[in-house]
Design a protein that fits this description.
6 helices; Rossmann fold; four-stranded parallel β-sheet; hydrolase; protein phosphatase; alpha/beta; Ptyr_pPase_sf; about 170 residues
């Protein structure tokens, strides 16, 4: 078996979108018995929420879909740029901030937007921050992340030569 593919999901504070992406990816990875092929983590641009659980509303919406969003927030570090194979950001501001951390072209090539993987939401170019919105914003985040995570896992399965069925 080849080395695990490592994924880091990044949003602004690591309390809504990126921990949800981490939880959804963990869930579908387990569901497809691919835990031996993928390492998953999340981080935020800022350190404001370091050590905190995800936003209670995000956890509640995730739980309603059968997901566990219980990772603790942390800030992205320079060593993450080397450690992870893929760094997946939620919006253009995250992309700008993480790209500014990259020291090499190789590190810049690791960075992509979550919506780059979405197949069923063509009008969305970002996973919007639901923090100041209502319930529909949290549900949209989950829908976008499910779409993107499924396609990303499909690509990882192909890389490892593993059968992947949706």
């Amino acid at each position: 078996m080849s080395k695990k593919t490592s994924l880091l999901f990044v949003c602004l504070g690591n309390i809504c979108r990126s921990p949800a992406a981490e939880g959804i990816m963990r869930h579908i990875t387990k569901e497809h018995m691919m835990e031996d092929y993928v390492d998953i983590d999340s981080a935020g641009i800022g350190s404001w929420h370091a050590g905190e659980l995800p936003d209670r509303r995000m956890r509640s919406h995730g739980s309603a879909h059968g997901y566990d969003f219980s990772s603790r927030a942390r800030q992205i570090k320079q060593e993450d740029m080397q450690r992870f194979d893929h760094i997946i950001v939620m919006d253009d501001e995250n992309y700008k901030d993480v790209t500014a951390m990259a020291r090499t072209d190789e590190q810049r090539r690791k960075i992509s937007r979550m919506t780059d993987f979405c197949k069923h939401h063509p009008g969305h170019t970002a996973v919007p921050d639901p923090y100041y919105g209502g319930d529909r914003g949290f549900e949209l985040v989950i829908e976008l992340l499910e779409d993107g995570c499924k396609e990303l896992l499909k690509q990882i399965a192909q890389k490892h030569g593993v059968a992947y069925l949706l």
